[in-house]
Amino acid sequence: MNISIFTSKYPYKVHYKNYLCGGSILVIKHLVNILKNNNNISIYSTNINKNTIIETHKNLKIYRYGTNIRFLSQNISLKKLYHPILQKHNLLYLNFDSAPGSIEALIIKILHPSIKMVLHYHGDWVSDYGSIFRRIFIFISNIIFTRLYLKLSSNIIVPTKIYINNSKYLSRYSNKIFVLRNGIELDNIIKYRCKKEKVDSICFIGNIEVYKGVDILLKAVDQLIQNNIIIELNIIGKGTLLKNYKQKYKQNKYIHFFGYVSEEKKLNILSKSKIFCLPSKKNTESFGIVNLEAMALGIPIIASNIGGIPDIVKDNRNGLLFSSGNIDDLKSKILLLLKDIDLYEKIKRNNLSDIDNYNWKNIADELELFLKNI
After folding, report:
1. Are residues 198 and 134 in the same domain?
2. CA-CA-CA-CA torsion sign (290, 296, 297, 302)
């Protein structure tokens, strides 16, 4: 097959702080690494600077269009808006990552209606947090582009079945949805498995934004510490609320903010944690790849019972689910895992076993078969 993939960014071999690639983009990278073995793939993305370059590999060509504007978390390239339209395409594969998405793919679809377009939908664009300017921009992007992407797509790929009904937009398109779980590079993770006795600690990894519910986790841990239940909390990630939280909890010596860290340091910190917590507040949390990283390390998870999370974190098997936003419920689940050693060890064993279901090779093979039959 000849597949044209459109994505706002595509990872380099090295990590750049000013070209951060989120989970949705890394999903595409992992799929491409396997799909390129049997297919010809062209990737249309952006470059870290103003220069346009073309990388050519076996069965893979990457167009990195020069960035003219950096807008919110997006790299905007004017050349990317028109150059792909001049190329020949057999199958359009659109990564629904950050707004407004790859508009050029829409234009190609409109100009050539017979070309199939597959939309890889990782989650809704949420317009109820951030600056007024961001809220307006996301709101308009949803009205115009989200509806066009969904309407014009031949098929829509989502990471979990339960998320279809939790999404603001997906339910009306259920007849053309294909569920494809996300995966993990297990070989790169298991070397970080910690065999030493762990101290009582919780790890959070993600954006420090309202919708991630970090404030709920901070309050829960802070209250436990005030009640002489000593537990460390390690917060990894950056965002608009990081500075405020660091200031608010600067007197608490058990709460640590690491900001952005390398992949190696992230996994080192996570591996030494006793619990991983994902306290998201919004139904837009469709999967959470970091859940898989915790599972691969044998770490029990405490997560909010919203979005697509329950499809991954099964209550009392891979971790414990709590009512989103409920601090008391979160505290009780933390205490349960810390005190019930049998439950903790059972969940740890389940996670080390269940992670085999998220092998990227099997997932990519499922996708390839699906694409051949559309």
Report:
1. no
2. positive
Distance (Å, whole) CA 371 – CA 118: 9
Same domain, 279 and 194: yes
Residues 6+ positions from 268 with CB-CB distance below 8 Å: 192
| SS3 readout for 250-294 | CCCCCEEEEECCCHHHHHHHHHCCCEEEECCCCCCCCCCHHHHHH
CATH number at residue 112: 3.40.50.2000
Residues 176 and 156 in one domain: yes
Q: Are residues 116 and 191 in the same domain?
A: no
Cβ(231)–Cβ(254) below 8 Å:
yes
User: How far apart, in Å, are the Cα atoms of 255 and each of 114, 205, 216, 220, 274?
Assistant: 55, 14, 14, 12, 15
Is 90 exceeded by the pLDDT of residue 98?
no
Q: Which of 13-27, 61-75, 263-277, 334-348 has the lowest mean pLDDT?
A: 13-27
Quick one: 190 and 177 in the same domain?
no
Q: Are residues 233 and 193 in the same domain?
A: yes
Kindly report the average pLDDT of the chain as a whole number. 93
* 332: CB partners within 8 A, 6+ apart: 322
The DSSP bridge pattern shows strands 301-304 and 275-278 to be parallel
Q: Are residues 201 and 52 in the same domain?
A: no
Predicted structure pTM score: 0.85
Number of domains in the chain: 2
Which pLDDT score is estimated for 197?
A: 67
Q: Are strands 74-76 and 69-71 parallel, antiparallel or unpaired?
A: antiparallel
Residue numbers of the domain that contains 138 = 2-183+359-372
pLDDT tens figures, 168-185: 999 999 999 999 999 988
| Percent of the chain topping pLDDT 70 | 99
* 343, containing H or E segment: helix 341-354
φ, ψ of residue 236 in degrees (nearest 5): -115, 125
Question: CB–CB of 318/351 below 8 Å?
Answer: yes
**Helices marked H in 45-162:** 78-82, 103-111, 132-141, 147-152
Are 198 and 301 in the same domain?
yes
Compute the radius of gyration of the chain from its Cα atoms: 21
